[in-house]
Design a protein that fits this description.
The protein has helices at about 5-20, 25-170, 190-195, 200-205, 230-245, 270-275; strands at about 175-180, 210-215, 255-260, 280-285. By secondary structure, the chain is an alpha+beta fold. Among the domains are: about 5-75; about 170-285, OmpA-like domain (60s Ribosomal Protein L30, Chain: A, 2-Layer Sandwich), CATH 3.30.1330.60. It has a four-stranded mixed sheet. Helix 1 (about 5-20) packs antiparallel against helix 2 (about 25-170). The longest helix has about 140 residues, at about 25-170. The chain is rod-shaped and about 220 Å long. The termini are far apart.
């Protein structure tokens, strides 16, 4: 860029040329005039430069001051915002605490009310339960009286039953009946099995007597080894008694007798009845029995 001084010199040269061409100024006058004006222009240019420098410095200072002002304003705004947030938070916390306190108070009041209702309900239920217990106790008392009466009756029945059982136990008991063929005295296989079935029972009551009683069907004995039904029935009893002795029954406990046809259990006028009457009965007689079979 051309400085103001150079521009002034060029302008003066132009003026000088114009004046010279007009013939109005000589060379010396022109130099004096030029020098004077150049000096003036240089001084003016220096003044302008100084003013520009001062103006630039002032602008720079104003810019710095503006930046400082903006920064301070920004900091103040931030501080104000932070303070505002703190105040807002504090206010919110205070409101939350107040709300929490109110909620706790309401909850405590509700709990107290529910507790009171629950207590009243429980008291009412206790009263109902007590009434039921009292009624149940009354019923229990009546039931206990009935139970005691029933127990007394049961005890009496048991005592009576014990007496009956004692009487039954003291009576002779038929434990086996063995059948025989007409005129026969030997035990059949079926008869042996019948006696085998009562051997353990007879051994268990070792104090009891064992009566082995033979019977006949009433048909007259016309031939064979036996002279009468008495002999025939006795032989049948002896046969059964010996079999029991062979099974380990003490001989001293056994008594064998014959009753001929004097104690029939079925009609004698039919073959079926006579078959039932041809028998040996094994009777268990407890010690001290009042009733004897014969």
């Amino acid at each position: 860029m051309i400085s103001r001084t150079a521009f002034t010199i060029i302008a003066l040269l132009g003026v000088a040329l114009i004046v010279s061409s007009c013939g109005k100024l000589d060379q010396e006058e022109f130099e004096m005039w030029k020098n004077e004006h150049v000096s003036q222009m240089e001084q003016a240019d220096a003044d302008i430069t100084n003013k520009v420098t001062m103006l630039e410095a002032k602008v720079d200072q104003q810019a710095k001051d503006t930046e400082d002002t903006i920064a301070a304003a920004k900091n103040e705004a931030i501080a104000a915002s932070q303070q505002g947030d703190a105040d807002t938070i504090a206010a919110a916390n205070q409101a939350a605490m107040e709300q929490d306190a109110q909620l706790r108070a309401d909850l405590t009041k509700a709990i107290d009310m529910q507790g009171q209702k629950a207590m009243e309900f429980a008291q009412g239920e206790d009263a109902k339960l007590q009434q039921r217990i009292d009624a149940h106790d009354t019923a229990d008392a009546a039931q206990n009286d009935a139970i005691k009466k029933l127990e007394s009756e049961v005890m009496s029945l048991k005592e009576g039953l014990a007496m009956v059982e004692a009487e039954v136990d003291a009576k002779p008991t038929l434990v086996a009946t063995v059948r025989f063929g007409s005129g026969q005295t030997r035990l059949s296989t079926e008869g042996q099995e019948m006696l085998n079935g009562v051997v353990e029972q007879l051994k268990a009551d070792s104090d009891a007597k064992i009566m082995v009683v033979g019977h006949a069907d009433g048909t007259p004995v016309l031939r064979g080894s036996y002279r009468s039904n008495w002999d025939l029935s006795q032989a049948r009893a002896n046969s059964a008694a010996k079999y029991l002795e062979s099974k380990g029954i003490d001989t001293s406990r056994i008594e064998a007798i014959g009753k001929a046809h004097t104690d029939p259990i079925a009609p004698q006028n039919t073959s079926a009845g006579r078959a039932m009457n041809r028998r040996v009965e094994v009777i268990l007689v407890p010690a001290g029995a009042l009733d004897q079979p014969f």
